[in-house]
Amino acid sequence: MWARLALLALLAALFASCDRGNVRGDGPPSGSTRIPDLPGDAIPRPERRSKYGNGPEYEVFGKKYKVMNNSAGYRERGVASWYGKKFHGNLTSNRETYDMYQMTAAHKTLPLPTYVRVRNLRNNKTVVVRVNDRGPFIHNRIIDLSYAAALKLDIVRDGTGIVEITSISFDAPQGDAPSSVRTPPAPPQPESPQVRPPSDRLFVQVGAFGDRANAERRLAVLSSAGIDDAFIQADADADPAILRVRIGPVAGIIQYDILVEELENIGILDPYLIVE
After folding, report:
1. What dihedral do alpha carbons 118, 124, 127, 132 form, nearest 10°?
2. Are 93 and 207 found together in one domain?
3. Domain containing residue 237: CATH number
4. Is residue 161 located within the same domain as residue 258?
5. Quick check: is 241 in a domain?
6. Do 97 and 144 sit in the same domain of this protein?
7. Residues 6+ apart with CB under 8 A from 13
8. Cβ(174)–Cβ(69) under 8 Å?
9. Are 158 and 44 part of one and the same domain?
10. Residue 216 belongs to domain spanning
11. How many CA atoms lie within 13 A of 2 on its CB side?
């Protein structure tokens, strides 16, 4: 028990230092008197697949990544980070110049370029960004936002945020120009907090089963690993009924990082974030 607590404390310090390192000294260039006016969302439009940064495979820090053939249907929840002046003016993976004041982002496997909608699950703020870079390569981060995008989502101060990413796909043939020009999707309108207030209840789902015995087995695996705040939630609206195994509520990103590390150690590699 004490060994596990010591490990959790060490992991918390490690992940906390990674997140703070993303913020410290990485805002607007020193000496600047004002932050430039923030741009509007990126406007999705059909584009050719870049000749650069699209794999089909590449390796970073000994880990291989396979670039997706297309972005159609991509949707993911996880932790977003951001990058700023340390990279401002450098080349991105598809050989464009990184501008921290534009609505762009880095992703490990989406085709370059891809347009995605990013929603902060804590405050429901939403932006549309153009993915033109690779990263982030920090454990348990799914997207690296430009400074401007992070500022609009209100995650600059904390360095990270829990988000949902949804691709905006034109289904253009890989490597070819689009056969026809279509009207791009309208930029999302920000939702009023009165319509959909932000939630503080964050859970991690680690399985959905039609058979209670299977759900109970997953719960037993979690319990034997010392994860005691797991439970089974029955979805009575589904027919047949679905039993969802969830952990939580999770207090924040550091606890989420630690939990993901523990789940990976017991072979559970596909946790799904739930906000209620």
Report:
1. -20
2. no
3. 3.30.70.1070
4. no
5. yes
6. yes
7. none
8. yes
9. yes
10. 202-275
11. 0
Q: Which residue do the tokens 């004041």 mark? A: 101
Question: Structure tokens of 30?
Answer: 């020193």
> Three-state DSSP class for 33?
coil
- Length of the chain (residues): 276
| In-domain check, residue 177 | no
Give how many domains the chain has, as a whole number. 2
By C-alpha distance, which of 43, 51, 83, 45 is closest to 67? 51
* Residue 133 φ then ψ, to 5°: -145, 165
> Does the predicted TM-score (pTM) go above 0.85?
no
Count of CB atoms situated within 10 Å of the CB of 45:
15
* CA separation for the pair 196, 152 (Å, rounded): 18
Our separate counts of H helices and E strands in the chain read: 4, 12
Q: Tokens for 104?
A: 């762009």
Same domain? 51 vs 130: yes
Examine the domain organization and report whether 164 and 244 are in the same domain. no
Residue 248 has which token pair?
């939580």
- Give the residues of the chain that fall short of pLDDT 70: 1-25, 28-36, 171-200
In the sheet where 272-275 sits, what is the strand order?
230-235, 242-247, 202-209, 272-275
Is residue 152 a part of any domain in this protein?
Answer: yes
Rounded CA gap, 273 and 78, in Å? 7
Q: Which of 146, 143, 149 is nearest to 162 (CA)?
A: 143
Nearest of 143, 128, 156 to residue 35 by alpha carbon: 156
Q: Which pLDDT value is given to residue 192? A: 39
Contact (CB, 8 A) for 168 and 117? yes
Output the pLDDT for position 32: 54
